[in-house]
Specification:
Elements (H helix, E strand, L loop, with lengths): L14 E4 L24 H12 L3 E7 L1 H4 L5 H16 L7 E5 L14 H10 L7 E4 L2 H9 L3 E5 L10 E3 L5 H8 L12
Parallel strand pairs: 1-2, 1-4, 2-3, 4-5, 5-6
Bound molecules: magnesium ion.
């Protein structure tokens, strides 16, 4: 009797993974965004998200939030901040497929970037095609997490900062234009299966 796992027939979708602080919202510097009032969305991120959607990509935020693990802030506050992000994006008629955070303190935790756990988990959960996905971040640990997950990588930061990323732009302001020019368009018939 022939049978097969039906989940194997689900199409794999490419995704743009975005780091949060410094990409989605203004970086808090060395600390953490600890209050909803201190979460300031970058308009250029909104535009970048729109480009990703127009080109056929899912979008997921992957963020290290050790402040929760350290007790500097609560999980409830982090959830409130992410709820505020979802609401702000809805005003632009945009949404994220998921917001994944790692609150672990230990650097060796498999989900804490530069480890790729958050990307791998999201890929399994949402049937994402990592090989055609991109990771965008403002820190080398984002680049490493993206590479370890098998994604193309894009670093956002000034020219004096070294990176091993596949691509780089100087600032978040350059993101929408870069993605418009370089993010490959995904046509409906190019979506692969497992
Ligand atoms: Mg960052």
């Amino acid at each position: 009797m022939y049978s097969r796992n039906m989940t194997a027939l689900l199409p794999l979708r490419p995704c743009v993974f975005f780091d949060r602080d410094g990409i989605v919202n203004r970086s808090p510097g060395p600390g953490y965004v600890e209050r909803v009032e201190d979460f300031h969305l970058f308009p250029e991120f909104v535009e970048a998200l729109r480009v990703a959607r127009e080109k056929g990509y899912e979008s997921v935020v992957v963020t290290n939030q050790k402040g929760v693990g350290k007790g500097v802030m609560t999980q409830a506050t982090l959830d409130d901040i992410h709820a505020a992000l979802v609401i702000q994006l809805a005003h632009f008629d945009l949404s994220l497929l998921d917001i994944v955070s790692c609150v672990a303190i230990e650097d060796h935790h498999p989900n804490r970037k530069p480890n790729p756990g958050m990307l791998l988990d999201a890929a399994r959960k949402h049937h994402l095609d990592l090989a055609r996905s991109w990771m965008i971040g403002d820190h080398e640990r984002d680049v490493q997490a993206g590479r370890r997950a098998g994604c193309r990588t894009l670093f956002v930061g000034p020219p004096e900062k070294a990176t091993t990323a596949d691509h780089r732009v100087d600032a978040v302001a350059d993101l929408p234009g870069f993605l418009r020019r370089h993010l490959p368009e995904i046509s409906a018939d190019a979506i692969g299966c497992v």
